[in-house]
Amino acid sequence: MPSVKEPWTSPLWRSRPAFLYSSKPLARFVGRPAAAFLHIEPASGIVLLACAVIAMVWANSPWAGSYEWLWGMDISLHIGGFELHHTLREWINDGLMAIFFFVVGMEIKSEIVSGELRSVRNAVAPIAGAIGGMAVPALVYAAFNAGGPGAGGWGVPMATDIAFAVGVLALFGSRIPSAARVFLLTLAIVDDLGAIAVIAVFYTEKVSLGWLTAAGVILVIAIGLRLLNVWSAPVYLIVGIALWLAMLESGVHATIAGVIMGLIIAAKPLFDPAAAHARAQELAKEGLTAEETEQVVRLRRDALAPTDRLQAANHPFSSFVVLPLFALANAGVVLSGDLLATAATSAVTLGIVLGLVLGKTVGITLATWIAVRIGAGRLPTGTSWPLLIGIAAVAGIGFTVALFITELAFRGEGTELLTDEAKIGVLAGSLIAALLGAGLVALTAPKHRSDEPADPSS
C-alpha cells in the first residue's frame, strides 16, 4: 500500500479501502498506530512484559481462582482410539511453543548459512561468549544447590531471552554499533541452541523407543524431501505436525520438533535473485498479463530464502500470540509474605538470580576476552570492552526460555514450592539484569550515531 497521508484516497482501491486504511476514527487513531507499534523493535518485549505483569496481578487478585482454573483446564483431542489429553497450559508449552522454537531454528539456520555463524572468525567471539554465558550461570546455581532438592534446576539461569535482550538494545537506537547488535543476536541464538540441547538431553523424563523410532523415520523423510528439492510448504507442514506428535508421545520434549523443522528449511532461495529480477523486468517491458503477473509474484517469492519468508510470516504470530500466551500461562506466581520470605533465602531463587545477573555477565565477558586474547575471535567493530560488559549484562534477561526450563526442571509431586521459588528467581533476576544492563549500556555506548564520527567539539 502506498505510504500517503490519506491512504483511503489512493487510486488503487476498486471501491472502498480496507478498514485499516480507511478514514474511520477507529482505524486512524487505534488501528494504524497499533499496526505501527507492532513493527518497532522493542514491541514484542513490551507486550511480553505486559503479559507477565498481567499474569502476576491476576494470580494475586480476588480472581486468582480463575487463573488456575483457566490454564489448568483439561483439553482432549480424540481421533478414533487415539487421545491427546493435556491442560491448556501444557498445550501452550508443548504445542504453541513449538512454533516459537521453529522460528528459532530458522534463525539458527540463516545465521549458519549466510549470517555471522558462516564466518569462523566472526562467530568465535559470540559462540565463546554464549558458552561462557551458559556454563558460568549453571556453575553459580550448582554452587548454591548441589545435593539439594533444587539441584535439577541448573539449566534455568543458562537461558537468554532474545526478544527482551534485543529490545533493550533497541531502546538506544543508532548509538549501538550494528556489529554489537549482531554479536548479541548471535550469542542469543547459540544460547538457544544450547538450551534446546539441555532440554532434549537432561530434561526428558522417560523415552518411548517406539515413538522415538517413528520420529526418526519422519525426520529421515523430511531430510529426504530437502535432498529431493521439494519446496511445498503444505508438505513440510504435514511432516512437521507428524514429527511434533511423535516427539510429544516419545517423551522427548515436543518443541524439539520445531527446532528440527526450522533447521531443515532451506536458507537459500530457489531462484537466483539477480536472474529473477532480470526476468521480472523483461516480463514487465510491454505490460503484464494476468498470467505474467503471477509469474512475477512467483519470481519475487522464490528469489527469497524460505527461512526468510517463513520467519517473516511466523514471527508476528510467535512474538505477539505465542510468547504472550506463554507468559500469561506461566508467569502467574501467587506472592504471599511467607513465599517471598522463603524465596529471599532460598538456594533456588538466589542461584537463579545470581546466575542470571552475575553469572551471565562474568561468563560472557570472560569467555569473549579469552577468545579475543588468544586471537581466535575479535571484538565486534566499534564495541569497547565496557560496552561489551553492558551487553553481557543485558543477556542475563532469561524470562521466556528460563520459565520454560523451570516448568521442565521441577515437575511431579511436591515440587510446587521449588517451581514458585524458581519463577520468582527468573522474574527478579531478569528484571535486575535488564535494569543493570540498560544502565551500563547507557553509560558506555557511544554518544553519537554508531555510523558517524564523533564531533570533536562535543
Short description:
This protein has 458 residues and is an all-alpha fold.
Could you characterize what this model shows?
This protein is mostly helical and 458 residues long. It is built from 18 helices and 2 strands. The protein has helices spanning 25-38, 43-59, 64-71, 88-114, 120-145, 162-170, 178-202, 209-227, 233-250, 255-264, 273-284, 290-302, 306-330, 337-344, 347-373, 385-394, 399-409, 416-444, and strands at 74-79, 82-87. Strands 1-2 form a two-stranded antiparallel sheet. Helix 5 (120-145) packs antiparallel against helix 15. The protein is globular, with a radius of gyration of 24 Å. The model is unreliable at 450-458 (pLDDT under 50).
Largest sheet: 2 strands, antiparallel
Q: What is the β-strand count? A: 2
Uncertain segments: 450-458
Question: For the largest beta sheet, what order do the strands appear in spatially?
Answer: 1-2
Could you estimate the helical fraction of the residues in percent? Answer: 55-70%
Q: How many helical stretches?
A: 18
Give the integer mean of the pLDDT values: 85
